């Protein structure tokens, strides 16, 4: 017998509106949405959402969960639990693990790990290199989220810097090609200048000068030029500069766009003014830049030149992060705090709830053609998040769920709290407690 849950008296945020209503869940799916639904039997689990808001589960299109090979920092089990607690019900994980996800065999190994240990729905990007085009051509587009190319700042051999290979990859697939854009030559030149002056202990405030606006814009504009030449479907990850926002358009609906962009939580929250206090804890690639860049990123997000908000969740141990500049790795953990941070921006009048849902739920589903997720619709999977907008809490060591045990948001008080997370119809998280139920599924794509 299918389990049945009825969510009553909710403020439902979906498809550009907020309305009061009930949601009936049967098995894994949303059966009915209406102003008022009465339970048909005593077996129905009724959840009262009076005064609270129901959002679709967020879809994070860029995470690094570090498994296999880097599990001292994080793993799929720990980070997916943190995601669920943060209202992220589906994630797309990146290929720069150890070994890298650049063969179909290694891709399938990651799917097997996630099948056993993930608390959230999952898929993976397949990594492109200068020499794995044959493997790319073997991919079934409905079985994988897309391709990831490092056009700068890669690990291992994942920097794709052969122009001929790059053009062949762009011509060879109709999948979304997601790219990290920073020009290596520019960065190396900038780094030498500062290293010659300071040695390894370069002050962190110079990180955005080393990984500069010029490095980002040069790489992004080249990628877009190639996408236009080849007709490829291009998605540029983690924009960090105002200048890059000029490269994108809001003239057509997202479903028809061939060139799209993402912005990450840290580039919307922090600026170079925060380096003095946060130090290498906010060292990311691309770098957090000026407050003026942050404002221009917000403008482009709100006028739909930028399509998606993601995390680029990339944990490192605190010991690693506390090293001098040249040894401190870039990246930080964010999946548990991304949605609360955006809800904080709602409280500050920066963004509407409807826009948060559009950028974190609807648009990733459209962009990657995720099947039956990202919306509150009858017939869709019941991935739902209940939020109390007036239940403040402060991020501290006791409530951080990341394996690395720290957060760039430590000490921050958020007004909004995620109280319940439903995954494929199962209540998997409630008031800081996780159920033992195994509900996560491999994402499928409508291609």
From TrEMBL:
Residues 53-428 form the Amidohydrolase-related domain. One of its GO terms (molecular function) is dihydroorotase activity. Belongs to the metallo-dependent hydrolases superfamily. DHOase family. Class I DHOase subfamily. Keywords: Hydrolase, Metal-binding. PANTHER family: ALLANTOINASE (PTHR43668). InterPro entries: Amidohydro-rel, DHOase/Allantoinase_Hydrolase, Dihydroorotase_CS, Metal-dep_hydrolase_composite, Metal_Hydrolase. This is Dihydroorotase. It holds the Pfam family Amidohydro_1. Catalyzes the reversible cyclization of carbamoyl aspartate to dihydroorotate. The keyword Metal-binding applies. Its EC number is 3.5.2.3. Its cofactor is Zn(2+).
